[in-house]
Amino acid sequence: MVDALRGKKVEEALTNLSFIPKRSALPLQKLLASALANAKNLSMPVENLIVKEITVDTGATLYRRRPRSKGMANPIRKRTSHVTVMLAEK
User: Fold this and answer.
1) How far is CA 67 from the centre of its chain?
2) 20: which DSSP letter?
3) How far apart are alpha carbons 90 and 88 in whole angstroms?
C-alpha cells in the first residue's frame, strides 16, 4: 500500500489515500497529514514537498490466549507496526 505513495507529491498522496478502500488507508492518511502539519510548523514550502521515503516495519506483538475445549488454549498474536515517513523538497 505504501508503494503507491512513494515519490508522489503530498497533496496527491493524501487524495489517493482518501479513495483507497483498504483498512490501512485511514491511519496512513492521518500520519501523512500530521507530517504535513509538522512541515508547515517548520516553515517549509508545502507545495514542493514529496514523499521521499515511507516504510512499514514490524512492531511489538501482544500475545493472548483463546480458551478451547478440554482445557486447551490457542495463541492469539495481536501484531503492531511502526510507520516511518520522510518528506523532502522537490
Assistant:
1) 33
2) -
3) 6
Q: How far is CA 2 from CA 7, 33, 42, 62, in A?
A: 10, 15, 25, 24
For CA atoms 9, 10, 11, 15, the dihedral sign is positive
**Alpha-carbon radius of gyration of the chain:** 18
User: In the chain, pLDDT over 90 holds for what percent of residues?
Assistant: 88
The answer, yes or no, to whether residue 85 has pLDDT greater than 90, is yes
Using pLDDT thresholds of 50, 70 and 90, give the confidence band for residue 20. Answer: very high
List the grid coordinates of 38. Answer: 509538522
How far apart are alpha carbons 89 and 58 in whole angstroms?
28
Hey, is 50 helix, strand or coil?
strand
With contact defined as beta carbons under 8 Å apart, do 88 and 35 qualify? no
